[in-house]
Design a protein that fits this description.
Blueprint lengths: L1 H10 L9 H28 L4 H4 L13 H12 L22 H31 L10 H21 L9 H8 L2 H24 L2 H17 L7
Length: 234
Amino acid sequence: MKEFLLHTIHSVGLADPALPIWFWALVLFGIISSTTVHEFGHAWMADKLGDPGPREQGRLTLSPFAHFDPLGFVLMTVTTLVGMPLGWGKPVKTDPDKFTGVGRRLGMALVAIAGPVMNLVAASVFSLVVRLAAGGSLGGLPDWFQYVFIGLIIGTMINVLVFAENLIPVHPMDASHVVAALLPEGIGKVYVSFMQKYGFFVLLGLSYTGVIGNFLLPVVKFLLRLLLPMLPID
């Protein structure tokens, strides 16, 4: 089993269309898990800051059904296969006026950053299981665990990608809310207004010109080498 798992690490990838159906099912697991934990992170932070809305909406759960958005899921699936997951779950509705202990702008920034942070947490947990399994620390494993193992590798990769892309300070990425909170209020309002109108087109332009890829690749490689040091990262 250990030899099979180590061989899998060196052969797993998302670019071969000849991969079996079960592999693509595991890719869907990675997509669903990354979207679920991301939206849960937003809901959890808003709840901790005193907004009862996410709890009343039933969003304080890791059930993927509570966070599912059909269009966002389809887009996430397609873009994941080309190496840059870009999609969304069902948006978490929050009311910054109900935040307690923090200002409105800081609260919105904390809620925004909680999503990608939760993706990094999920990637860390998945990769820990992978490392324990590959190192033999989990003892004898049944044959079916190979599918769990591959799913956890894919889940780690996709969660890392979602975390990294949300560091881009362009709407609708979460970092744009953090930037808006850090800017002086007047400039922040102009920034938010511009991003809400044109952010998606800016994002497409940056993606088309390769700027986003040049930014994301070093971050993704660094994190994957840290979390999955046995993974062959060029």
